[in-house]
Amino acid sequence: MGKKSAKIFAVMAIWLVMITTNALAGDKLPQLGQGITIWFDTGGPVGGPYNTIVQNGAMQAASDLGAEVKYLYSDWNPEKVVENFKKSMAASPDGIVLMGLPGDDPLAPFIDEAFNKGITVTCVDTGLPATLQKYKSKGFGFIGTDYDQMGTSLAEESLRRAGLKKGDRAMIWGLKRLEDRGRRARAMIRTLKEAGIVVDYIEISPEVDKDSAMGTPIVTGYLSSHPDCKMMLIDHGALTSQTENFLRTAGIKPDEIFVGGFSLSPATATAIENGYVDLVSEMQPYLLGYLSVAQIVFTRKYGFTGLELDTGGGLVHKDNIGLVAPLANKGIR
Amino acid sequence: MKTLYRYRFQCGILSLLVGLLGLFIHLSPQTFLHSRIYIAFMSTIPFAALLALGLTLLIVAGELDLSFPAIMAVSGFCFSSISQATASPVLGLFGALATGSLAGLCNGLIVVKIGVPAIIATIGTQFFWRGTATLLADGLAVNLTELRETALHHILVGRLFDCLPMQSLWCLVIALFFWMILNRHIWGDDIRFIGDDITTATMMGVKTDNVRIGLFITMGLMSALASVMVCLEMASWWPTQGEGYLLIVFAAIFLGGTSVFGGQGTIFGTITGSIIIGILEAGIISGGLSGYWTRLAHGLVIVVSVSVYAVALKTRRT
Question: Is Flavoprotein tagged as a keyword (chain A) (predicted)?
Fold first, then answer.
């Protein structure tokens, strides 16, 4: 082969490679969610620690799938969930994701209307059992966990780890006044009482609910009037994250009292590392956002039925906090 | 006797505080006869009290600020982000104070120069500053545990002699300063004149615009300072910071005898009101009652106190 022929052969080979590569690139699968619009009610307030993680998951799914997602905020207010749902319907999106805070009955007529209009609806965090039964085949799903089950499992695991005996005293700080969310606190009270534990229940006031700094004198007051308290279960993410400050002020040393709580945050991770919080149960809110967007896309694209997924059961403690803590800083766990 | 009559409201609210403490000691002696609960109170009440001090001056001048919880959030965010970026919490403190002053100046200009009523203007700015903080923070809380060992932490919220929370000393110093301003300085007279009747105050030569803008800036500064202290005490910043203070700060001020119509108010009353509001919940819970009683007790104490003031001051509109 002459030099000229060799050159021609080389150019042809390169051209062939380029053609093949382009063809393969053309075979790349398209993003499934392109052209699909979803209105997503994150449930909580703008910047709320829990619903921001839900939103982060939804944003990742939107980016991965190419769907367009618009976010709404309900300040954990059931009336606002209904109001946001009506607003979402007015925009005629392909799908709506909501948190079932108001319950089945108040939402039923609007969800009926949405499905009649051809909008796919699905639900996260708080379930709507009757709606799920009615519309599961049309794509209505539930991603989250049962509050009762979540409370029961945290209480059972805490009892196991803390080694409390019949007649020992424990404090539960919760939000029993909230209809569905309060099921978690009620489940913890029930589980501890069934185990023969003396339970003191304290309701979280709306002020402490918003600004956890105000919880300090309550913990100090309670612990000094009940020095025999061996366990505290806190049904509130922000308060769990401030446990270290509460106990420091109350003069309690690390690991002196067993503390269990919910939802991970950077401050909670530090409190676990420092021995002030022993066990944290999380609903893995990132998955709520990600999977609900994926569910709507799958239903719209391929007609899949609604998914029922339990994301609860994630327990964070001293042994696995090293792995989880960096993710808490990024708003993923 | 004449002096006692002059200070009858102060004596009244002090008696209420002493009475409540007596009741709590009776209900839960193991808690209220121990220093620990008072240390806890001294670590948390100063935050609300600092806000109440700034707001008292505004209310005495006949103005209002509903945006201070949001100013707390945005100033606190500035503090946490500057502290983390520069590893200097002192720079963070100055950043927060500058942010708080700027936010206060904005409120002042909108109310005084543009003429929007304070209640409407500060509702708008509270949405704006809360939104700014959330947007900048991307909705995420900031962990500040690394600031626990810094000099600023020890100076602002450390424990003097390993027990006395520094924030309570700062609060006391600032309360004394505000008392001096309100009672021993010409600015205090100006504030009261403006609150009584702004037209007369203007005719008397009071620079009403400057005083009112100054008061909004002071409120912004107090919000920023309270926010930095909360961030340091709790070793974290969160996007909803400040929201829980709105109602209790107003409750403390009105419980302390400050008139909603302006022109009247005392620093002593505000501090005592802050203490009463701050100890109620812990007292109720330590006494063995459920937390459900807290709001009922708050409501009862506030309604009875302000009714007594209304009768004494004959404020009923006829």
Answer: no
